[in-house]
């Protein structure tokens, strides 16, 4: 009953079931009507895997360019949660969602006020700061190489989403949010991520959560509540804007990559590593490791060079110079490898 009420409120806020009201977007301003999610029927996994590793991809997947995953520290995600690794073959056998014409847009659905919101949690009042929505749209477009739409922000309170009590605070139930927004997932969306500034949990064992995503339902949610360094703190000598931006980018990339079918990574230091706390989030790189990059390229069909060039430009423009430098090194290494492999002209 609660989920139906929340969905009805969302439909009303979005125009009584009509097209999404877009605040910013690179797609059509008049997308198709809203319909429930539908899985994409794809080819036989064996046939897909036959072309999953062309030689042109090898320079982009050089394992020596990526850092190994360090041993788990006490209290880290891998110390708390034991998950089986995911191979490319296992991904190919799953009902993953491949972007296709007419259903290739990533949608950001903000619930609340952005880029700042006053939030009451228990007897505390916090101001949560986030990057601007148009900035998040630009990052997501560069990272995944797809068009991105941003829905005009909607207040979260009227949705009456279930909450769970943690340490005297009401935390929004991640699965409850997913269930509430599922009926308004746009038909033109590859996937949609809900953005909130409130505390989030996804299970009874969690004291808080950064995000939650489905691997096959094309839906995800992430919270900015715990990643604003003005609230949680950051390393001495670092810029709160840069730390907040990096944390937001990492979580957006992580949760949206789940909607492409990628699971947590235990191969390398990778944006798809499980994350238990702010320290682990800050230690996690923003890039995909070679295993997870291969999966994303397999599902999404992106051009790795064009993707890296777009990301290098984006990171430089927004002050993430370490990330931009790493990307440029990968571009230079791949170019050198291509020269070595290219036969000499006669």
Record the strand order, biggest sheet: 1-5-2-8-11-10
Number of strands: 11
Radius of gyration: 20 Å
Number of helices: 12
Given helix and strand content, the structural type is alpha/beta
Q: What does the oligomeric state look like here?
A: single chain
Q: Strand fraction band? A: 15-25%
Mean pLDDT: 82
Which consecutive residue ranges, at least 5 long each, have pLDDT under 50?
Answer: 15-20, 24-42
Largest β sheet strand count, sense and barrel closure: 6 strands, mixed
Distance between the termini: 74 Å
- Helix amount, in percent? 25-40%
Shape: globular
Helices and strands, in order, run as HEHHHEEEHEEEHEEEEHHHHHH
How does this structure look, described?
The protein has 12 helices and 11 strands. The chain has helices spanning 2-13, 45-50, 77-80, 88-93, 133-144, 174-181, 229-232, 240-259, 278-283, 290-300, 304-317, 321-341, and strands at 22-25, 105-111, 116-121, 124-129, 148-151, 163-166, 169-173, 189-196, 200-201, 211-213, 219-223. A hairpin with a 2-residue loop joins strand 6 and strand 7. The model is unreliable at 15-20 and 24-42 (pLDDT under 50).
């Amino acid at each position: 009953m609660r989920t139906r009420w929340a969905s009805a409120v969302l439909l009303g806020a979005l125009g009584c079931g009509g097209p999404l009201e877009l605040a910013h977007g690179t797609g059509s301003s008049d997308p198709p009507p809203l319909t429930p999610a539908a899985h994409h029927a794809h080819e036989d996994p064996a046939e897909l895997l036959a072309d999953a590793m062309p030689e042109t991809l090898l320079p982009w997947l050089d394992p020596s360019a990526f850092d190994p995953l360090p041993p788990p520290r006490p209290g880290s995600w891998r110390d708390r949660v034991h998950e089986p690794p995911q191979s490319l073959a296992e991904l190919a056998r799953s009902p993953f969602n491949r972007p296709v014409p007419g259903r290739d847009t990533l949608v950001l659905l903000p619930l609340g006020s952005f880029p700042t919101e006053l939030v009451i949690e228990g007897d505390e009042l916090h101001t949560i700061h986030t990057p601007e929505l148009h900035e998040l749209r630009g990052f997501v477009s560069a990272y995944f190489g797809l068009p991105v739409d941003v829905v005009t922000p909607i207040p979260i309170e009227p949705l009456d989403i279930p909450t769970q009590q943690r340490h005297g605070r009401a935390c929004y139930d991640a699965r409850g949010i997913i269930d509430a927004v599922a009926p308004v997932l746009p038909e033109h969306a590859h996937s949609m991520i809900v953005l909130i500034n409130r505390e989030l949990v996804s299970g009874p064992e969690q004291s808080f959560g950064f995000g939650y995503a489905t691997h096959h339902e094309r839906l995800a949610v992430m919270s900015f509540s715990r990643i604003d360094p003005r609230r949680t703190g950051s390393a001495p000598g670092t810029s709160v804007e840069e730390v907040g931006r990096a944390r937001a980018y990492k979580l957006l990339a992580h949760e949206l990559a789940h909607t492409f079918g990628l699971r947590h990574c235990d191969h390398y230091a990778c944006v798809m590593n499980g994350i238990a706390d702010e320290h682990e989030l800050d230690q996690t790189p923003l890039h995909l490791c070679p295993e997870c990059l291969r999966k994303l390229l397999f599902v999404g069909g992106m051009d790795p060079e064009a993707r890296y060039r777009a990301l290098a430009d984006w990171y430089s423009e927004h002050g993430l110079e370490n990330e931009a430098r790493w990307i440029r090194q990968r571009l230079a290494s791949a170019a050198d490898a291509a020269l070595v492999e290219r036969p000499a002209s006669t």
